[in-house]
């Protein structure tokens, strides 16, 4: 597999909107490839918890940045900690869901969190499956493999209905797709996969196949 990512890292980037299957596919791919898995959305949700706990207005960049800069965010094995406290459950609250797009839209906040994400991959051996909304375009633009998962709106809403209000999910996706900094969009060289009518196993097989093909091409270079 080529080491051509940011800082020589080997990254499998899995991007897409909510309900497209990123988390399930990324976790399964990481398991099959024996790689660590980073859910970057969890880091932004933790930053949102930090901002809300400090009483910062999510739309006020200076206040949000101060809260995030003063927080210690750590992600490991699907759990996220804020200042030594496991806030995984707190990051899934309706309050956080309503504020996370505003918090993550601030360029300076994104820079802080992107640095954290890159450092996480470096600390985990420089190779990982990383899921998010701007991995292939911003965080690791030279990722070894880039995939953008999508699905029809009604499918995505149904998948997330048990966790989140479908209308709120759609609003966040529209907001993230239209924001000026790091918009939600596929990288030019990403494989776009519509997961609407595919099983998890089919999507995982496609992604793992890309990774293995990347390794075979490299061995022949």
Question: Can I get a quick summary?
Answer:
This protein has 221 residues and is of the alpha/beta class.
What does the model show?
A hairpin with a 2-residue loop joins strand 3 (73-76) and strand 4 (79-82). The protein is α/β, with parallel strands linked by helices. The N and C termini lie close together (11 Å). Helix 1 packs across helix 9 (200-220) and helix 7 (153-160) packs across helix 8. The strands form two sheets. The chain has a five-stranded parallel beta sheet, with helices on both faces. It has a three-stranded antiparallel beta sheet with strand order 3-4-5, covered by helices on one side. It is 50% helix and 16% strand. It is globular and about 50 Å long. The protein folds into two domains: 1-36 and 127-221, P-loop containing nucleotide triphosphate hydrolases (Rossmann fold); 43-123, P-loop containing nucleotide triphosphate hydrolases (Rossmann fold, 3-Layer(aba) Sandwich). Mean pLDDT is 90; it is low at 1-6 and 217-221. 44% of the residues are buried.
